[in-house]
Amino acid sequence: MYEEFYGFSERPFQLTPDPAFYFESITHRKALSYLGYGLNQGEGFVVITGEVGAGKSTLVAHLKQKLDDRRMTVGEVVTSALDGEEMIHVAARSFGLDVDGGDKASALAAIEQFLHEEARQGRRVLLIVDEAQNLSIGALEELRMLSNFQLGSHPLLQTLLLGQPEFKHLLAQSDELEQLRQRVIAAHHLEAMQPGEMEPYVSHRLEHAGWTGNPEFASGVWPRLHKATHGIPRKVNQVMNRLLLMGSLEEQAVLEVDMLDAVIEEMAVDASADDGSADPRVRPDRNLPASDAIARARTQAAPPAAMSKADGEARQKGLLDAQIEAIEGAFAERDKQMVSLRSEVQKLAATRADGGEMPGDLGDRLAAIEARLDEQERSLRHVLAMMIDYFESASTREAA
Q1: Same domain, yes or no, for 175 and 315?
Q2: How many angstroms from the chain centroid is the CA of residue 84?
Q3: Which residue numbers delimit the AAA+ ATPase domain (predicted)?
Q4: Assigned domain for 174 exists
Q5: Which end of the chain has fewer CB atoms surrounding its CB within 10 Å, N or C?
Q6: Is residue 56 part of a domain?
Q7: Is residue 142 part of a domain?
Q8: Residue 239 confidence (pLDDT)
Q9: What pLDDT, in 10s, does the model give residues 70-102?
Q10: In a domain? residue 116
């Protein structure tokens, strides 16, 4: 797609987290400082929160690259709504422990033995728990109990909790989590990037993909980009993907503000269409104890009994087939308009060769053809953008 037109070695604005593209904004630099301090303590909990798409996963991927795997063993958990017993088994599996059945005591014993063995080998153990806002109070309490494992006076496990803003509020307000709060030794909330960070962020990602100045960007693009995305990295990536796609389709070497405005308008239309058909995101009720809130959210989010996995796959396949058919139709219509344009041009050339008068409505006829071509261009660009979004969301689901 656009990476070929502009000569990039890879797509610079993919949505899946990639530590190679890590950009150290002001807020990410602060987060790394807190993480460094917390990890140096070697105990308790470190908490990083932020909005969806703020860059938590990319930050952690970058952190993992800096860790020495000869001295640190890392387990990772991406949570759904887990209760306390499920949390123990998932934690055990994150460290590669083979825990059969549903025996919580056996799982705890396996984790404790593993932690002691790692300590004897001179390695510390870190458990990273992503999407912590999905955890019940019971699951969080089990994580706190795991932090009690010690070898003499030496703590054996440290935990990094990543969550959305509601987890920050839950942790601060829940009376049931007082003991966990006392064990949080470092915490940071990832803010959005500042307006002045838009150009450096985009340039950083482009340069990593081999950008040498093509395309150029009008100076007015950066404040408009920040206003549209509020400085959220994932939203910036989404908009930049669309803008570069439009630039490549229109063969533009300079991306102007009006092109960015057109992209933002297209995305707003797509979002409003999605709002009419997609189910609203289910979030736990923060006024309830977390365990009850998660249970309620599970009930609200449960799919209809008649919707089987096969039905879901069929629906996805149907969507993909429909989008492929739309692209084929768009190309076919574009070809038809090109044939019409060639026919008009050939007629005009023949008239001129015969010495005849040029039609009085020549300008109107050419303007009408140009308008039809522009409309087909917009339709084609829109369908291609939909396909990109589909494949990116599919790859994100597979990565998760």
Answers
A1: no
A2: 28
A3: 42-216
A4: yes
A5: C
A6: yes
A7: yes
A8: 96
A9: 899 999 998 767 777 888 999 999 999 987 766
A10: yes
CATH of the domain at 13: 1.10.8
Tracing tokens 């958990």 back to the chain, one arrives at: 77
Work out the pLDDT band at 391, boundaries 50, 70, 90: low
Q: Which residue has the tokens 């950083």?
A: 204
Q: What is the DSSP letter of 286?
A: T
Residue 366, helix vs strand vs coil: helix
pLDDT computed for residue 159 by the predictor: 96
Span 271-322, pLDDT tens digits: 776 655 444 444 444 444 444 444 454 455 444 444 444 555 554 555 555 5
Question: Looking at 156, 190, 224, which one is the last position of a domain?
Answer: 190
pLDDT of residue 25: 95
Q: How many domains does the chain have?
A: 3
- Enumerate residues 6+ apart whose C-beta is below 8 A from 358: 348, 351, 352
Note whether 151 and 213 are same-domain residues. Answer: no
Q: CA 319 to CA 296: how far, in whole Å?
A: 30
Answer yes or no: do 322 and 203 share one domain. no
3-state secondary structure at position 165: helix
Same domain flag for 90 and 110? yes
pLDDT recorded at residue 303: 47
Position 328 scores a pLDDT of 60
- Give one DSSP letter per residue of 369-388, joined into a string: HHHHHHHHHHHHHHHHHHHH
Inter-CA distances, 310 with 39, 299, 314, 318, 337, Å: 45, 21, 6, 12, 40
Strand, coil or helix: 358? coil
The residue segments making up the domain with residue 9 are 2-18+194-301
CB under 8 Å to 158, separation ≥6 — which residues?
Answer: 38, 39, 41, 42, 43, 44, 45, 46, 124, 125, 126, 127, 147
Do residues 385 and 336 make contact, with C-beta atoms less than 8 angstroms apart?
A: no
Asked if pLDDT for residue 360 goes beyond 70, the answer is no
| Residues 100 and 249 placed together within one structural domain of the fold | no
Same domain, 63 and 151: yes
Residues 11 and 113 in one domain: no
DSSP 354: T
